[in-house]
Amino acid sequence: MRGTRQRMDSLGRGMAGGLRKVQRAFYRSPPTFRRAAAMLVDAAIVIESFVVALLFRFDGAISEPFWTSFWPFALLSAVLFVLLLNANGVYRSILRYTGIYQGLRIASATSIATGTIFLFVFAVGPEGLDLTSLNATPLSVVLVGGVLAYLQLVAVRLYPRVFYELSLREIGRRKRTLIVGTGEQGVALAGHIWRTAAMETQIVGFVADSEAGEDVGKHIEGVPVIGTVDEIERLIAEHGVDGVIIATPKASREQVDRIWRTCVRARAEVKVMPDLGQMLSEGTIRLRELQIEDLLGREPIDIDLESLSGYIRGRSVLVTGAGGSIGRELSRQISRLDPSSLVLFDRDESGLYYLGEELRREGFDAATLLVGDVTATERLSFIFERYRPELVFHAAAYKHVPMMELQATEAIVNNVFGTLNVARSAGAYGAKGFVNVSTDKAVNPANVMGATKRLAETICRELSREFPQTVFSSVRFGNVLGSRGSVIPTFRQQIEAGGPVTVTHPEMIRYFMTIPEAVSLILQAGALSKDSSGYATYMLEMGRPVRILDLARNMIEVMGATDVQVKFTGLRPGEKLSEELFESTSESQHATEHPMVYRLTSETDSPTGEDLMSLVGAMIVESREQEAESAIKTLKSAVPTYSEVVLTDPSPGARADRLGPS
Questions:
Q1: What band does 17 get if pLDDT is binned at 50, 70 and 90?
Q2: What is the distance between the alpha carbons of residues 214 and 252, in angstroms, rounded to a whole number?
Q3: Hey, CA dihedral for 46, 48, 51, 57, is it positive or negative?
Q4: Is the dihedral of CA 135, 140, 142, 145 positive or negative?
Q5: Which residue from 353, 411, 454, 540 puts its CA 20 to 30 A from 436's CA?
Q6: pLDDT tops 90 at residue 507
Q7: Residue 171's closest CA among 205, 206, 189, 198?
Q8: For residues 22 and 32, what is the distance between their CA atoms, to the nearest angstrom?
Q9: What pLDDT was estimated at residue 380?
């Protein structure tokens, strides 16, 4: 029995090999030969279809007169079918990529051909004008034959595609893979994998992303839905799975984290599929490795694109600090909202150049790149006079906390005088809106950077009284992932170098948000402020805070470097263990039309009017004369909540920490 089975398997493999050789020879032949061969095959299919229909009509007992009139009819029908198929472009398609559009072309050609033949037979036959003494082909044969011809013309083209995809699945050792998600993205991914030999992936099955598992037991494109996300560990073990692809755009971060941790335990690789919109824009699917951003517990943000488009469309916009992390993303998102012009201003000429090239690649040609410094009054006057921006997004600032503790005079000149310079220009030249990009470090500031940003907010509030026609606002948010100086790129570099990963304190926590999320909400806050008057401070919903030690441990796990150590170094100058988003004693938060944006009202004792401007002028002079101590003293007078943090070291027993459970 075993020998017979082996001989049958050998015979089957031999036949399959012979078919592959014939197929390869056919594909290597000249295009004209392939087209002619396809036409002959189609003609034979049409004739065969009408023969079957005629046999069916007369139960196999066809009289001589009908055979005599049938063959000219069948040959002419075959010629008509082939001509219409050729006119519809059927013979210009690649067989192994046959799909719905090919089927529609064939349906169009066969419908026209069948209808034409039907009318002709009716006209010349006894039921019509009776132009011939021969027995015409029955009308039922025309209809049944046309349907059979369509089905067989489609089937003969589907075979090469099915054969091609099946052969791809059998080539070499392919990674056995589960796709999490039975929606549109998962199906699109499966189709892409089946048609792409280079992916070296074999789909074992789909995993339903809903706990109810309504799809379990069903088949999608011939692949079974074999379980739910809660059963992934069992499915990996039972089916010998090498990797899992997450193709669920609405999956919560907690769900992604659970899938990832399950796969880590089961030693299966995890990859993530980008959203379908990104896939369509790029024209291909680029799977990416799981990133720490996928695990930080934030849900996707719902952005009111209609209000944003109405806020930006048709207006001239200026972005300062356009070469920085926030400025670049602001420029990208604004360019997609149809501004009349977009002026990008930064002193980083390289950053500006590459940003301009990126926007041009995306089809936006209305960007003007201007190199300069926000502290250069004459340069700003020229820009506002020449381009007359209606909306100004001020993102230019020094943001690195420990560095600014050592460069206090530069922080004051850039963050305070720079903001005063741009905001005053916006008001003087009649801009309709000015949005100051602030930070959570402006709340009860414990460092020079935070104090200068808080003073920048106060300056914007003061100028709103001087220029009532301009709506001034500030937007506060926490750390952004992936920005220059962010902890995540630093951790990634340290892990790639073999460690150690340096964490300042085991209890340090921070709020995190991706750059696109932060920028979308900055624009949303700007859109909310357009209908208000005076000044407004907005706070973005940052979600739950993240312990930096947990972040470091998770990154080590995600990058598969479990032997890397975590080392505690102690707080750096100006750092706090935790940040706040508003001052609970002097500020109140209020809901807005967007659930992720809050408006703050303040009862601060900060100086106002001439007193404020006098302090600002004094500290700018002191900073330019490099009198750091005097400038910081004046800064404290202008920002009463500024209180320098007392540095603390982590506990003596926590100087080094190997990766362990979080």
A1: low
A2: 19
A3: negative
A4: negative
A5: 353
A6: no
A7: 198
A8: 17
A9: 95
Q: Which residue has the higher pLDDT, 540 or 372?
A: 372
Q: Where are the beta strands (DSSP E) in 154-268?
A: 175-180, 201-208, 219-220, 223-228, 243-246
Per-position DSSP letters for 26-57, written without gaps between them: HHHS-HHHHHHHHHHHHHHHHHHHHHHHHHHH
For 62-79, the three-class secondary structure string (H helix, E strand, C coil) is: CCHHHHHHHHHHHHHHHH
Q: Where are the alpha helices (DSSP H) in 497-546?
A: 515-529
User: What torsion do the CA atoms of 298, 304, 309, 310 make, to the nearest 10 degrees?
Assistant: -140
pLDDT for the residue numbered 22: 55
pLDDT, tens digit (0-9, with 9 covering 90-100), for 345-391:
999 999 999 999 999 988 898 899 999 999 999 999 999 999 999 99
| Tokens, residue 93 | 């398609």
- Mean pLDDT across the stretch 306-333? 90
Interacting residues of 567 by C-beta distance below 8 A, sequence separation 6+: 499, 500, 501, 502, 503, 655, 656, 657
Residue in this structure with the two tokens 């220009």, named with its chain if needed: 425
| CA dihedral angle for residue 508, residue 293, residue 443, residue 308, rounded to 10 degrees | -170
Q: CA distances (Å), 47 to each of 61, 157, 173, 428, 499, in order?
A: 18, 17, 44, 83, 74
Helix then strand then coil, % of the chain, to nearest 5: 50, 15, 30
